[in-house]
């Protein structure tokens, strides 16, 4: 039969059952209205006979049961009113036992029994024991489960509990517990027995049906949890052992998982804490297929919340040694369940670590112990590659960072790096980024070389190629983001003590130098600028700082920087190396270290000569060299002349004439430094500017030959502005006559050029603006105005 056919048949059988209940209920209502007890019992028994069916699934049977349950509520109200039916409750209890079929008989017996207990004509204990024993007569799993569920429902408010109106003698609570436990035991047996019904081919369907009925069984544990008289002593000595005995002995995966979860959820947290050893002792005895990781995780979550809710309970956790018991239990489970997936074991350790961080945050030894246990578990595999498992490992490693908001604390955990090493290369890098983000977010300063060593070992996946990976395989944007994060991190390592800071710099250098040609351009600059920060604190200091470590002197640091830049220039990245050489030269100048500054300038010129080949890069480099040389103040006359000569020579050898012109007139500033002790060589300034004019004229002629027009006068106007600058600064070689002659030259050249282009328009505007500046200086008065008086515009 097809699935659709079975569903249709089941719907038909359900409809027939509901129709039968409604039919017999109609006549039962008539009998109740007529106060006819005999007829009421007759039709109620016929109505309840509809529950004897075996054709319905648990879901459909539940619908049928609820129809009958609603009718039984009305029948119970009738039984309570003895004046209506004229029979004592004791006689009524005997009378309903004459029903022909056992199932209707027991439903009626439970209904009358509820009224019997309420009447208090017999001890609640006796009636409940009688009912729970009588229900043994129904052994069909589904019918028996619903019958006992009905018994639980009608008796839950009539248990002989402390403070209850049905309280009996001194053992009253024990009687209530015995009744609930007996009913629970029998219901669990019926529930487990369901798995053996029907052919093996429908096992999956049968397990689904069993899952739908689990709450009927769990309701008993819920009732147990609500009995006021069940104190810790009784729970520890009676309730928990008997429940666990039933859980372990049933040897059913579904039942064991659900009931263990029920125990954790329905009983108080305080009871769990005090009976932790008993509860955990049952875990290794469960079936290997039981999802024990979820059970233990929920237990630890409840205990964590319990600890977080009240700080006064924390001593209890220490008293019962909760961490040790949980840790040992998890270890036993991992050892015994050899088929447990690796993700399951890691999940357990994540839960244990979360528990530890919430309950014992100050015990770093506990945290490290959990990490160590995880390492031991992961050591069976070379690398964790399962996606779910890697997520759990990341969660494990992230937990201490989130709790302490301080990577320095995590760096003290000896097993933290070992867990990182268990990750595959991709996840290792993700975790490294998480660590860096934590440092940035919390603005954490790493202040010792030892901690820097551990930190860079943790993030080694970002600073060098791990086994089996290559930079070429990485996405370009991701790679840049990673390296920029490492660069930001380098700025976060700092110590006020020069000696320790130098050790930190050496440690960082050791790690980043293994990064390869694509990483060094990102990581070397921040290292060098960190060193500059140290150099500035040691400015002009000669000799060693008092201490036992490496000498923290500017010379020592510059030697380190020289080696670092050498490595950068060899990868090759000459433009960056040249820029850093110039930065080092300026820093050395600030420290009054002329030989060091000269050496870095020499290195920069060598890089320019041998490595910088692109014409645009040469132009940029030339301007950088000129600007840096102009700012250097420490050089002696001889060294300065040597470097200045080099700069002017290379400027005149650039590929394009306009670039030559601009570089040469920029060199004029090397001979006129505008400060108190600066160089002021007017003649050489004039030579540079005249040389620039010749080159500009040559450039204009080349344009004229190649394009048929003389080209713009932009270069001439730029040189004019240089003339005006040095004229104002008081260079005696720059005269008003020279400026006048240059003005006339530019005017003549502009008149001879009849073409109109975007470039010529721009140069015309530039010249007009320069003329307005000259006029403004003439008109504003004062000494400067007198200097400009002889210039005609």
From TrEMBL:
Pfam families: Vps35. One of its GO terms (biological process) is intracellular protein transport. Keywords: Cytoplasm, Endosome, Golgi apparatus, Membrane, Protein transport, Transport. It is a peripheral membrane protein. Its main location: cytoplasm. Transmembrane segments: none annotated. It comes from the Eukaryota. GO terms for cellular component: cytosol; endosome membrane; Golgi apparatus; late endosome; retromer, cargo-selective complex. Signal peptide: none annotated. It is found in: Cytoplasm; Endosome membrane; Golgi apparatus, trans-Golgi network membrane; Prevacuolar compartment membrane. Plays a role in vesicular protein sorting. Belongs to the VPS35 family. This is Vacuolar protein sorting-associated protein 35. The lineage of its organism: Eukaryota, Viridiplantae, Streptophyta, Embryophyta, Tracheophyta.
């Amino acid at each position: 039969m097809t699935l659709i056919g079975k569903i249709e048949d089941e719907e038909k059988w359900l409809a027939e059952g509901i129709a039968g209940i409604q039919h017999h209920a109609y006549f039962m209502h008539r009998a109740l209205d007529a106060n006819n007890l005999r007829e009421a019992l007759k039709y109620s028994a016929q109505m309840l006979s509809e529950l004897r069916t075996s054709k319905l699934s648990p879901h459909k049977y539940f619908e049928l049961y609820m129809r009958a349950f609603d009718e039984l509520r009305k029948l119970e109200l009738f039984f309570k009113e003895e004046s209506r039916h004229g029979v004592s409750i004791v006689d009524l209890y005997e009378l309903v036992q004459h029903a022909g079929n056992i199932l209707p008989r027991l439903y009626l017996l439970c209904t009358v029994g509820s009224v019997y207990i309420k009447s208090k004509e017999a001890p609640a204990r006796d009636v409940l024991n009688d009912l729970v024993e009588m229900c043994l007569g129904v052994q069909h799993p589904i019918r028996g489960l619903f019958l006992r569920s009905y018994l639980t429902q009608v008796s839950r408010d009539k248990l002989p509990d402390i403070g209850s109106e049905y309280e009996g003698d001194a053992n009253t609570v024990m009687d209530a517990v015995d009744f609930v436990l007996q009913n629970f035991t029998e219901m669990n047996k019926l529930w487990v027995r369901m798995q053996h019904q029907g052919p093996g081919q429908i096992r999956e369907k049968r397990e689904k049906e069993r899952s739908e009925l689990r709450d009927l069984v769990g309701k008993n544990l819920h009732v147990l949890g609500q009995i006021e008289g069940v104190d810790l002593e009784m729970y520890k000595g009676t309730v928990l052992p008997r429940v666990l005995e039933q859980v372990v002995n049933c040897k059913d995966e579904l039942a064991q998982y659900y009931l263990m979860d029920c125990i954790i959820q329905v009983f108080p947290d305080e009871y769990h804490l005090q009976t932790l050893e008993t509860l955990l002792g049952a875990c290794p005895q469960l079936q290997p297929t039981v999802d024990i990781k979820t059970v233990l995780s929920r237990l630890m979550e409840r205990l964590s919340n319990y600890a977080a809710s009240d700080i006064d309970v924390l001593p209890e956790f220490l008293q019962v040694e909760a961490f040790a018991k949980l840790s040992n239990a998890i270890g036993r489970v991992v050892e015994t369940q050899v088929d447990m997936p690796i993700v399951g074991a890691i999940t357990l350790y994540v839960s244990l670590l979360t528990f530890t961080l919430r309950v014992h945050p100050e015990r770093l030894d506990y945290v490290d112990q959990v990490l160590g246990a995880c390492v031991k578990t992961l050591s069976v595999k070379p690398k964790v590659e399962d996606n779910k498992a890697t997520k759990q490992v990341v969660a494990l490693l992230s937990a201490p960072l989130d709790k302490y908001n301080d990577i320095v604390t995590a760096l003290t955990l000896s097993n933290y790096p070992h867990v990182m090493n268990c990750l595959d290369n991709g996840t290792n890098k993700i975790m490294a980024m998480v660590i860096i983000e934590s440092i940035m977010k919390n603005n954490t300063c790493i202040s010792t070389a030892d901690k820097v060593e551990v930190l860079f070992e943790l993030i080694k996946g970002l600073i060098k190629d791990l086994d089996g990976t290559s930079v070429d395989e990485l996405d370009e944007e991701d790679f840049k983001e990673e390296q920029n994060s490492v660069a930001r991190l380098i700025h976060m390592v700092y110590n006020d003590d020069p000696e320790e800071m130098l050790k930190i710099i050496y440690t960082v250098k050791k790690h980043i130098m293994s990064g390869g040609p694509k990483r060094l351009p990102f990581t070397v600059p921040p290292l060098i600028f960190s060193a500059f920060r140290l150099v500035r604190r040691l400015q002009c200091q000669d000799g060693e700082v008092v201490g036992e470590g490496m000498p923290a002197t500017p010379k020592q640091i510059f030697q380190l920087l020289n080696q670092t830049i050498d490595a950068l220039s060899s990868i090759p990245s000459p433009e960056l190396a040249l820029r850093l050489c110039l930065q080092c030269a300026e820093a050395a100048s600030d420290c009054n270290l002329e030989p060091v500054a000269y050496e870095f300038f020499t290195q920069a010129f060598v890089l320019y000569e041998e490595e910088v080949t692109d014409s645009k890069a040469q132009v940029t480099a030339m301007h950088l060299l000129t600007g840096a040389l102009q700012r250097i103040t420490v050089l002696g006359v001889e060294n300065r002349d040597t470097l200045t000569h080099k700069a002017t020579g290379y400027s005149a050898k650039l590929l394009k004439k306009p670039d030559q012109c601009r570089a040469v007139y920029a060199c004029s500033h090397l001979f006129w430094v505008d400060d108190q002790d600066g160089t002021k060589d007017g003649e050489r300034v004039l030579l540079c500017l005249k040389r620039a004019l010749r080159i500009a004229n040559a450039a204009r002629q080349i344009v004229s030959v190649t394009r048929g027009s003389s080209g713009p006068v932009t270069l001439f106007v730029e040189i004019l502005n240089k003339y005006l600058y040095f004229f104002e600064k008081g260079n005696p070689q720059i005269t008003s006559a020279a400026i006048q002659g240059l003005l006339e030259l530019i005017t003549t050249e502009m008149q001879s050029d009849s073409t109109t282009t975007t470039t010529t328009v721009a140069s015309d505007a530039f010249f007009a603006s320069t003329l307005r500046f000259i006029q403004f200086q003439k008109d504003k008065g004062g000494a400067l105005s007198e200097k400009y008086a002889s210039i005609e515009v």
